[in-house]
Amino acid sequence: MANEERIVKRSDKLAFMNTGTVEKPVYTRMRKFTDMSTSKNPTEYTRQYVDEDGEETDVTGYSEEKSYGFDQYTNNPVHERIVEITDDELKGDDAIVEIVIVDKSKQTSDGTFAARKRRYTVVPDGDGDSTDAYTYSGSFRAKGAFEKGTAKIASDGLTATYTPSTSSVSSQSSSK
Question: Could you give the maximum distance between any two Cα atoms of the chain, in Å?
């Protein structure tokens, strides 16, 4: 059946980091991560009106954060970038990365997938806390609004090509 429910697997949401340049982006799959979970961290405005018995709450903003953890692998450009930021204690613009999240559960009519691109500041937490493999952990914290688009994943699954939507809406300006 066309409308049959289907579970969305964790592996249906893939992350790709720009390991190229702003002018020539190369979105490389973020492989070998043991953790990549999202916290929306909404900003709330709560108040109680004098003529009502209960409070009202509105969400007035978001400060998305993705926690990460990975086993370090050699010849992995994503790992190399995060390790450089961590080990060299990079700050400011030197600690910013661009990530595209591709949702394989939302395929478009032209064979691409729904995607969102956002810049993040890498906030390292720790490294080396495993005796089996060398690990790194921390979080990616939102550095501005996201952009909606589509992505085509290469046949080898290791890179993606991102295209912004013509009607791209950011999380900080949308009202649903």
Answer: 64
